[in-house]
Every structure is written in structure tokens, then in C-alpha cells.
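_Per-residue structure_
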Amino acid sequence: LQKIRYHKYLAQMWSSGIFWGFISKAESETILHPYDMGTFMLRFSERMSDGSMAIAYKRKKDEVRHYLIRNSDVSGKGRSLPQFIRDTRSLLCFLRFTIDEGFGSNIQIMEKNKALEKIGRKKRNVTMTGDGYDLEFLELGSDTL
């Protein structure tokens, strides 16, 4: 739980229901089984005691695979866990876990970019030349990376 509290973005992902936390490989395979290819869930690795995270994803109709997230995937300039997920083409939709007011649990499919739209985005600082020109093009209508 210390990792959730201090790891950048992880607390946001936990509270929004897209980080499942402590769930085994077998449990994640059972949950993912009826869903379409590209559906995935983010969880702690049960094998690693250092708080490493893994992604369980539906690769084929009857195949769930597991990927252990490496430091090189999520660290360095412009790299973060949300950005790694955005950039990974095999990952299409999060399985989102929620608890309703009656304490019943629900699972929803959520397109990854929608799920991450407010997580891991920074305001973009535009560098301008001395004569008022931007040094790069910006996306229309957006002030985020």
C-alpha cells in the first residue's frame, strides 16, 4: 500500500478503479476470460515482493498473458506508467472495478485513453522565440502533452 500512496499516478489509478492491486495471475485470468482481445488489467505482481506491477491482458480468444512492467518501461524523460499503457498498442480497454453504494462490485470495460485522460497529463509549456513564434506545433484545442 505504501507504493500506491507514493508512486506517481498510482493513487489516481487505484481510486478510479483501473488498478486492481493485489490479485493473483489465476484470478486475473478467470476475470479476463470472457472479454475481448486487448482487454487488460493492471495489478501488483504476486511473484515480486518489491511492489512491481504487472499487466494481465487478453491476447487471443482463449489466451490471457502477463507482462511484468520493467523500470525502463516507466522511467526516464517522457516515460510514466500511464504513457507506457497509452503507447502499448496491444492494450485497448481497461477492466475497471467499482463498488456501488450498496457495496456490490461492478466490472466495466473502459477504453484506455478515456480511462487515462486525466491521469498523467501535464500542462504543456510552450517555448517561444523572442519574436513571438512557437518553436513547435501544438495540437488543436489542447494544452496537454
In short: The two ends are 29 Å apart (CA to CA).
